[in-house]
Prior knowledge:
The complex is a heterodimer of chains A (423) and B (481). Chain A is α/β, with parallel strands linked by helices and 423 residues long. Chain A is built from 17 helices and 13 strands. In chain A, the strands form three sheets. A five-stranded parallel beta sheet of chain A has the order 11-10-9-12-13, with helices on one face. In chain A, strands 6-5-7-8 form a four-stranded parallel beta sheet, with helices on both faces. Chain B is of the alpha/beta class and 481 residues long. Chain B is built from 18 helices and 15 strands. In chain B, α2 (49-57) crosses α8 (181-195), α8 (181-195) packs parallel to α11 (260-274) and α14 (340-352) packs parallel to α15.
Amino acid sequence: xxxxxxxxxGGCVLSGISATLGAMKGFCPVFHAGPGCTMQTSAxxxxxxxxxxxxxPCSNMLEKEVVFGGIEKLRTxxxxxxxxxxxxxxxxxxxxxxxxxxDDVESxxxxxxxxxxxxxxIDTPGFQGNTELGYEVTWNNxxxxxxxxxxxxxxxxxxxxxxxxxxxFYRGNLEELSRILRRLGLEVNNFFVDGQGVENVLSSSGxxxxxIVHPWLFEGPAKKYEEKFGxxxxxxxxxxxxxxxxxxxVRQVAEALNLDKKxxxxxxxDEQDYLYRYLEHGTGILGWKRxxxxxxxxxxxxxxxxxxxxxxxxxxxxxxTEPLFRDSDKERITERxxxxxxxxxxxxxxxxxxxxIDGVIRSGKYDDVTLFLGSSNDREAAxxxxxxxxxxxxxxxxxxxxxxxxAGYRGALSLIEDLFSNL
Amino acid sequence: xxxxxxxxxxxxxxxxxxxYGSGKDLAEKFKGGCLKRADRSFSQGLQCQEINGMxxxxxxxxxxxxxxxxxxxxxxxxxxxxxxxxxxxxRHVDHVKNPRIFVTNLDQKSVVFGGEQRxxxxxxxxxERYNPKLVFIFTSCASGIIGDDIDAISESLxxxxxxxxxxxxxxxxxxxxxxxxxxxxxxxxxxKYILKGEKADRQENLVNLFxxxxxxxxxxxxxERMLGLLGLEVNYVPFYSSYEKIKRIPQAAxxxxxxKVFADEFMIELxxxxxxxxxxxxxxxxxxxxxxxxxxxxxxxxxxxxxQKIIDAEHKRIEPLVEQIREKLKGKRIFICGGTxxxxxxxALVSDxxxxxxxxxxxxxxxxxxxxxxxxxxxxxxxxxxxxxMEPFEQANMLRKLKPDCFLGVPTSAxxxxxxxxxxxxxxxxxxxxxxxxxxxxxxxxxxxxxxxNRNLAAHTKLPYKDSWYEQDAFKFITAN
Lengths: 423, 481
């Protein structure tokens, strides 16, 4: 299913799995792979996890293991990891090398589990897909192998859809979305911030609702949660940024959980008041721009909608860059980018290849764009337009991001701050 | 042109990539031929040679890079794009370019049925888009194991695309534990497919200066300035170079390199195939190393006298400054971690400052390392050597026990243990040459005098290891092979 691509945004399925596991407290990925895979996968997502890159245990398979099999090397690597690494759950991941020669990683995991160690295996070698798939594969495997049914907690929700590293703002965004949900009286499993990890994964089966903040990701795992644990899900199709979409997000959650209307109205009114007391001083500080956004669908939807609906910029171009395999996903994304409060839809493209993306940007059709939001890959093409350019989608190499949020009510403010600073 | 060396660094005799011992033990064992190859039964992730192979050519003009691999194998080269872009900004490029990196994106189907057609399609696309002079094709673990014959495919592509030089590079990760093998694989391919053994008219004042991506533009300018003082013109390759500059390599009167592990094997080949002498590389930082580096190249071109004059003048300028730094750093206990070249260069430097070396990590131990170790053994009391390509868990264990005053190298563990940290190189700022010593000394003084950040981090963060690990032998997983 994969296609030839120039300057790919993201890595292989292994990068998605290790970014997801590495960002959760108590998990330790153990690579059964050639030397280099731990670095390549971490660099691909730049997740900056505690357990990324050269910190991750790896069997570093060499020619000998390729020819004679690497199971023994994997055994000693897992045994060493159990002795050295401070983690609760160890997950063996398969690189291309072990995947092609067919090492039976699951049997090694079983051996250790029989001895009472929490060792599991995800047998999905790197060549089977990309980072986005890796995020889904991780959850599919956690659901089938690790998570057991728990008693329903009517106040608990799980937040899915933001991929560590591939969403460079995932920490700040999860903090802000969790903050808003907690104001509604909810407990939130966001898995990657607030010191969350193993216990949150285990308790996720007792949640009252799965909230997927993404226009297409996580369909498979969400259905599994529903079938196995009876957790229903809602899809928030695009990162909610600013008043219009964040308020809609709050109402969508409130409706699904049948929350107290008075409380919900109060929270919304209070957040709006906070937001507009600042925004009122931000009239026209960016000038009145024509907008292009290039990047992953979640960000493109979120930023295009916010800056159009709430900040009166005129959207001209939206390029969604991750590969999409279902027409229904493209339609959902198109619908979200087209249903703007006042504006006409921007031109919408689905392109993953950098040369083709550059071709659209420099086609002459968008020379009137005056604010360009994209990744560091898009800076080159945008430099030929008379526009201001800012890096907000993966990969971002010119900024360092800790807990900056671009989501929710607060993120709406920090995004405008950043854009002004870059004028 | 016969290739005598297969490009895999561990294939060289007397080169060891796993092991440990004190400086004195290792030197003695190596001398007696008793330093044997070992292995690790537990290890953390290494860097693969494909990363280094791609890194070597990522910034060459009019080139495209094709990874015949699943998408993941371009992870690191995407990050190198950042270094390449910073380099362009320093060189005042108007429209800062992305490197032209393609991935054939091998998937489940190609693993079963082969990836030849994908590779052909990718080359076609790359040529149609950029009409490049150079097409570099890199293998991966996946393409290597499924057995795609990139040499044969490249050969047939050559007749299809006569305007392109197609350079297949064999750099499957599983072939080597030493990522620097990727440099050799790439240079061997450059020799075979671009230079092709064709001798060129010698230009007497031209020298090849081989430099890796981690060298900043300021450092390039400084090296060029110094060699300029000897009347030499520098062919700076392969970073920010071009097809034309690579083609000029055989015209040079001599070769030298900035980094020990980068081009030494290539320079041996250049001597064998084109009769170009080279100076044995030391990383030119500080007095001793910069003297050696500068005099090395001066000797090759018969300019010793001129060089000595410059060296004397530089010493006169630098030595009083070193003395000032020495006052502040004398007796401080230091741990060093870096690539083979950097580790030893740094160890020599800190000796000049009167610092006490307590530990050193080096990815490789070989005859070259032996020269450095013997030099250090004369100047230092005994110290621990860990022959490791990183292995941060061993480093953390050693640091907890050795409790050095400061740490030099990649600081991902040391900072959380509260140790003041600095790095010997800075790819974005000047670090090399005579002044490099002063930059480094001052950076260490700064960190020693103001260690608050790391001290606070240590109080509030934790490395991902069990507490019990620190009580065990740091080298317990090193096994005889």
